[in-house]
Amino acid sequence: MLTALTARFVAAGAVGVIAQRRDGDAVDALAAGRAALEPGAGLPDVAGHFRIGSVTKTFTATVVLQLLHRDLDRSVTRWLPAVGDDRITLRHLLTHRSGLHNYTDDLTDPAAIVAGRDTRWAAWDLVAPALHRLRHFPPGADRAYCNTGYLLLGLVVERVTGRGWAAEVTDRLLDPLGLRDTSTGTVRLPAPHARGYLTVDGRAVDVTSFDPSQAGAAGGLVSSLSDVNVFYRALLRGDLLPPDALAAMRAEGLGLGRHETPRGPVFGHDGGFFGFQTRSWHSVDGRRQLTLSATIFGNGALPPTEELVAAVAG
């Protein structure tokens, strides 16, 4: 199954792909393609580090629920008055129902993205312009994917705890679970790793090194296949949240995606960060898992998430 799946990604345009499937205690991992575009580059390492993009949102949501799962319907202005709209609640931010402008929609120029890859951003400097843009809809009236909301959630964590989002993720999730391959704020990926690229004026530009503060609590983590699967298994079997908080996360999509299958729901998240695509999906109890990382170049359409979901559901 992994052989066919990874081959599909390479055929669709991925430079390289690594995937890990877990079924109970059985673990199967496979690599396909190349670790880099350079001639002679070998297979990517299945133990490699990669940028997980929006899979970070499940980590952020877990920390928010640990701290505030009984306060989800309180206005975010309780902690961040500068948001200015007391109708927007934590639940709206977690479920992409705030109506706020998504700041990453403005990141459309590959040359500008490459030029700014060493910029260290403060979360509020990214959020503030988005707050002054036209709202897409009143809070709660609709749903539109919004990275702005997850940066705000990171700022809420900072306001509640007096410490940064990164410190809380590390102390509450990474260290207790032994996720030694997972880190915040990592500019240069630790070895081993494949290389990611952006297309600028028709040529491949290596963007493997990138300051992730541009994504922060919305998408800034670096991890590995094994670490991502360990995290989701711990989350879904109830090790990280009270039962009512986990039930709400599953039912409402609080930082957690859900796909229905004939064998029941499958949970997880997709993620993208310049040059990297991650997909991570899991059975309801975390027993059956599949996480995949692809490095990309060009504009090819990768296989749909439903292919991974079907593989998890069996």
From TrEMBL:
Instruction: Please give the superkingdom of this protein's source.
Output: Bacteria
* Hydrolase in keyword set: yes
Entry's Gene3D superfamilies?
DD-peptidase/beta-lactamase superfamily
Q: Which SUPFAM superfamilies match?
A: beta-lactamase/transpeptidase-like
User: By its UniProt entry, which InterPro entries does this protein fall under?
Assistant: AmpC-like, Beta-lactam-related, Beta-lactam/transpept-like
Keywords, comma-separated and alphabetical? Carboxypeptidase, Hydrolase, Protease
Please list the residue ranges annotated as the Beta-lactamase-related domain.
Answer: 16-270
Which Pfam families does the UniProt entry name for this protein?
Beta-lactamase
Single GO molecular function:
carboxypeptidase activity
The identity of this protein, by name, is D-alanyl-D-alanine carboxypeptidase
- Tell me which species this is from: Asanoa ferruginea
